Amino acid sequence: DSVVHWFKCDLRTKDNKSLHLASEKAKEMGVPLIAMYIVSPQDFEAHLTAPVRVDFILRTLEVLKADLARLDIPLYIETVEKRKKIPARILELLGEWGASHLFANVEYEVDELRREASLVRACLERGIAMDVVPDTCVVSPGELASGTGNQYAVYSPWFRAWVAYIHKHAEILNLFDAPAKNPESARRKFEKLFDSMIPSAPVNKQLTEEEKKRFRSMWPPGEHEAHERLKRFCDIRIGEYSELRNFPAKGAPSSLSVHLASGTLSSRTCVRTARDHNTTKKLDGGIQGIQTWISEVAWRDFYKHVMAHWPYVCMNTPFKPEYTNIEWEYNDEQFKAWCEGKTGYPIVDAAMRQLNYCGYMHNRCRMIVGSFLAKHLLLDWRMGEKYFMEHLIDGDFASNNGGWGFCASTGVDPQPYFRIFNPLLQSEKFDAAGDYIRKWVPELEGIQGNSIHDPYGRGKGNEAKKKGYPRRIVDHKEGRDRALARYKEGLGRA
Ligand code: FAD
Questions:
Q1: Site (Electron transfer via tryptophanyl radical): which residue positions (predicted)?
Q2: In whole angstroms, what separates CA 5 from the centre of its chain?
């Protein structure tokens, strides 16, 4: 007999609701707890999971496996090539292990919800209880409704309701204990499961040796690292977060997104830890940096609520249907220049090169390059959304889709389409000294003063030209005017 927890995007032992409940159930029944992770190359493919993210997940599994082994809990890992076969294979395994209960944390993406629903039914037919519990959000989708009883489509009122809900139900910030140690007999009984190997990445998700080395030193895996990062951030930097967070050269953000996306850290732990650092011991009031950071973590919840309520956003459809008719440009050359950071707009290029080198990009810059792609280049925002997923170590469908919707004005935010970021002004405002640009665009390293933001326009362009830095692929005003006209036209057709 046994109880099983199925790990997905929750690769941690601490504050993991499903794992905790599974452990309690196993204890109550006096049977061992088995943990399982299914590697699905087709899921990686279908979700456009970046190779750097796949590598991070596989490295995290090593840490998790060792942590669980210390508790005599096996982490059984198996690759199932065809994603459709996953439920059937899980049922087989449950049968082999004599499992009476299967626990998992719910994922709100459409495919995952469907898969889980069918698995719950199939388990039931075999007399196995499957519990799929909400865990990834601090406040679960469905808990917050506006005065009219509907899902909020605007962040600010939603956020006020989110804060009020947490203050009212303070227990939702209680953290779940790590699982208890298995009885010793479990190790003997399930010896073989402890030996299951962590596979190498599927062929099309492999990194080069140089990339492996680079990403491994940049992004150490596992929940211990996540907790240390969170602690360091809350002890040292969170106080300055609200003043510095928009300046990409200042390194103010926590860089915890990679851990939230893989589930090596729970959003509950983040909010709880930040709150406990606040003088008010609340989500609001007290230290400004803490309030602001919590409100950013809340954005992650917000976009998951949006996705859970309007699942069509998972199907390549803009949140605002009236934006379906915009006629996008599909200019491959310009898209390539954007991807490679060769647009001639230094701030855009610096940001894209940061993404390509680190698998991460600063939030302000994500907005700048997103807006530039959708507005100035008038490229289909879904091309940018896809490129981000294929390269981000923190790729998360709901946040990425929400972010792209914001940039292209096709999303949930009420921002009108005619508010278009001016990349030059953004650059001057948020990277005034040009430090971020110089770091990522070596061709412009030697340029001093204001010309760094516009080397051909303001500067004489000699230095940039000598170093092979490209001229602008689109003029700001022309790009802007074309976007305004095209959006208007598209809306007219709606
Ligand atoms: P911090 O500033 O320290 O914030 C803490 C946490 O709050 C983040 O880790 C993240 O979980 C959450 N958060 C902060 N800002 C946002 C936001 N705007 N939306 C949702 N959650 C937020 N975030 C992802 O996690 N995955 C993505 O794939 C992703 N794609 C994006 C695409 C675009 C076009 C845009 C504009 C934003 C995107 N974001 C995404 C949101 C945001 O840029 C990142 O979460 C943030 O930059 C991560 O860095 P950090 O952990 O240092 O953030």
A1: 328, 381, 404
A2: 23
pLDDT value of residue 157: 95
Mutational test site, ligand 1, from 219, 232, 264, 296, max ligand atoms within 8 Å of CB: 296
- Asked if residue 100 and residue 154 are part of one domain, the reply reads no
Domain check: are 140 and 258 in the same one? yes
Q: Which of 473, 471, 367 is nearest to 422 (CA)?
A: 367
Same domain, 162 and 282: yes
Distance CA 64, CA 446 (A): 46
Average pLDDT, the chain: 96
Q: For residue 320, give the amino acid letter.
A: K
Give the confidence band of 328 by pLDDT, cuts at 50, 70, 90: very high
Annotated binding-site residue? 357? no
What single DSSP character describes residue 329? B
Q: What secondary structure, in 3-state letters, does 378-403 show?
A: CECHHHHHHHHHHHCCCCCHHHHHHH
Q: How far apart are CA 62 and CA 434, in angstroms?
A: 40
The CATH number linked to 470 is 1.10.579.10
Domain extent, residue 253, equals 136-172+220-309
> Taking a C-beta distance cutoff of 8 angstroms, is the pair 259, 284 a contact?
no
Angle in degrees, CA 59, 62, 68, rounded to 5: 145
Q: To the nearest 5 percent, what fractions of the chain are helix, strand and coil?
A: 60, 5, 35
Give the atom of ligand 1 at the shortest distance from the alpha carbon of 255.
Answer: 52
Q: Residue 486, Cβ neighbours under 10 Å: how many?
A: 17
CA of 103 to the centre of ligand 1 (A): 28
Is 468 within any annotated ligand binding site? no
**What separation in Å is there between the alpha carbon of 465 and the centre of ligand 1?**
35
Q: Does 126 share its domain with 227?
A: no
How far is residue 129 from each of residues 7, 125, 190, 394, 424, measured CA to CA in Å? 17, 9, 21, 33, 58
187 CA to centre of ligand 1 in angstroms: 40
Note the Cα 379 to chain centre separation in Å: 23
* Its pTM surpasses 0.80: yes
Question: For 429, phi and psi rounded to 5 degrees?
Answer: -80, -45
Q: Which of 394, 401, 413, 430 maximizes ligand 1 atoms within 8 Å of its Cβ, making it the mutation to test the pocket?
A: 394
- One DSSP character per residue, 218-232 reads HS--SHHHHHHHHHH
Model pLDDT for residues 428-442, shown as the tens digit of each residue: 999 999 999 999 999
First to last CA, the chain: 59
The token pair at 364 is 């302000």
